[in-house]
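Design a sequence for this backbone.
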């Protein structure tokens, strides 16, 4: 019975984090963009500092009519938002937020392979949405999403492999147990490659060509309305939380901090994750969208060579240490 309660408690905690943190990131994005771009609405909704903007968005989505195009594949069309969202919930189960077995939903021996494989499943939601919508613009957006995933999954995996080489394990808790602060200077290239590739997989600006409103409306999600559309947005913010959490765990020491990790480990993890989430928002505000050819060129001619160079550097450092 104790084991069952332990599993149930972990599931509840992970689900609560999954529901709360993406909304916090969404609300933060409203505020940061309002300050950086002079947007008035998010600063006034509800009164003090626009506290009710996120509530207003939720009510707006709930009030919109749920429309399914006449020519759509209804079952696939309705299932696509869940397929896009749920993989990030499964990834959060394996991300450690502190030391010890109690600070991770489920310790997975091949944690790196698990989280990267499951994150790749999310693209199926976009493909399903684009194909099932019976809309040529949606189909084009879905295909661009798939092409973008193929381009950026490889540098992301190579960058993560560099950390696994340094730690001698593919377990996420094992990587944190082996982490040393002197890793930061010579793993920084891998960290940048992993973070940039992750942004591209999430289709976040400046890598949002699959949903470029100026030429293909909103990509694979054009025909979605109401809460189904809101689920795709929630998947995006959940992806931000997962990407920033994984970058923290793999490259920034996770729960390691200058004041000790015994009692404050989870605080350091959340703090680093929050700072990276702010960087994601800042990049959206600051940089224009890349063209499709520029997006592909960045992956194949810049990120992949850098990731390979990082692996070579890791091998050299490991041999020198041994």
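Sequence:
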């Amino acid at each position: 019975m104790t084991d069952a309660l332990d599993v149930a408690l972990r599931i509840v905690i992970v689900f609560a984090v999954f529901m709360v943190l993406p909304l916090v990131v969404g609300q933060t994005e409203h505020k940061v963009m309002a300050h950086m771009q002079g947007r008035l609405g998010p600063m006034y909704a509800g009164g003090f500092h626009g506290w009710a903007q996120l509530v207003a968005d939720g009510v707006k989505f709930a009030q919109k009519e749920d429309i399914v195009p006449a020519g759509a594949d209804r079952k696939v069309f309705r299932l696509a938002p869940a397929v896009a969202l749920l993989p990030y919930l499964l990834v959060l189960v394996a991300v450690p937020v502190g030391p010890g077995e109690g600070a991770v939903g489920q310790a997975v021996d091949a944690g790196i392979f698990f989280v990267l494989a499951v994150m790749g499943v999310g693209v199926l939601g976009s493909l399903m949405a684009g194909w099932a919508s019976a809309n040529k613009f949606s189909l084009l957006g879905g295909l661009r999403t798939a092409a973008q995933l193929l381009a950026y999954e490889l540098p992301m995996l190579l960058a993560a492999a560099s950390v696994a080489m340094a730690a001698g394990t593919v377990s996420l808790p094992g990587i944190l147990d082996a982490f040393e602060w002197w890793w930061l200077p010579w793993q920084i290239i891998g960290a940048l490659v992993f973070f940039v590739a992750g942004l591209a997989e999430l289709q976040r600006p400046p890598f949002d060509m699959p949903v470029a409103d100026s030429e293909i409306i909103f990509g694979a999600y054009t025909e979605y309305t109401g809460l189904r559309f809101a689920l795709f947005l929630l998947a995006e913010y959940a992806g931000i939380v997962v990407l920033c959490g994984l970058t923290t765990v793999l490259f920034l020491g996770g729960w390691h901090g200058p004041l000790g990790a015994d009692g404050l480990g989870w605080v350091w993890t959340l703090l680093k994750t929050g700072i990276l989430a702010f960087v994601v928002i800042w990049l959206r505000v600051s940089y224009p969208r890349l063209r499709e050819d520029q997006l592909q060129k960045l992956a194949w001619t810049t990120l992949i060579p850098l990731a390979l160079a990082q692996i070579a550097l890791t091998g050299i450092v490991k041999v020198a240490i041994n």
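The mean pLDDT is 87.
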